[in-house]
Amino acid sequence: MIERVRAILITADDTMLVIRRTRPGIPEYWVLPGGGVEPGDESREAALHREIHEEIAGKADIVRLLHTMESDDERQLFYLARIATWSFENRTGPEFSAEGRGEYALEEIPLTTEGLDGIDLKPEEIAHVLRGAMAAGSLGVEASL
User: Fold this and answer.
1) Distances (CA, A) of 28 to 60, 109, 120, 145
2) Whole-angstrom Cα distance, residue 84 to residue 11?
3) Would you list the DSSP string of 104-131?
């Protein structure tokens, strides 16, 4: 089974970092930073730190696992994390140099229902989970640090 890790990256300004994907022939959409767990990763959390470094040259404090999605051949783990520094110019992931992969643009959106409603966050299930957590006041980033 393929395992992927993704981060809900909350900034000090209570915004969320997302990546806007633009690919030929496909309507733009947004994803959370992250990617596949590799054999050399010591843990899922180590994989997430590596992916955050590759995709946005950032360092994050992982707060907790927020949600898991599973299908027949893939498991995605979504972690809530605080991020203080990042630099989209210094990203190093292999996907950025691959031909035909489209564009990856880092954006900050308000961590509100309106902010989420303004983008097409994929997968849709995590957008629903985030809306529910915001409505319930259960993101609890400050209380968990």
Assistant:
1) 26, 15, 8, 34
2) 6
3) EEEEEEESSHHHHHTS-BSSHHHHHHHH
* Cis before 123 (ω within 30): yes
The 8-class DSSP code of residue 45 comes to: H
Kind and range of the H or E run holding 48: helix 44-56
The residue that leads in pLDDT, 37 or 102, is 37
| pLDDT tens per residue across span 122-133 | 999 999 999 999
User: Which residues make beta-bridge pairs with 10?
Assistant: 16, 82
Sign of CA dihedral 27, 53, 85, 16: positive
pTM of the complete model: 0.88
Tens-place pLDDT, residues 51-97: 999 989 999 999 999 999 999 999 999 999 999 899 877 766 655 55
Of 4, 14, 107, the closest CA to residue 50 belongs to 4
Could you give the CA distance from residue 109 to residue 101 in angstroms, rounded to a whole number?
Answer: 23
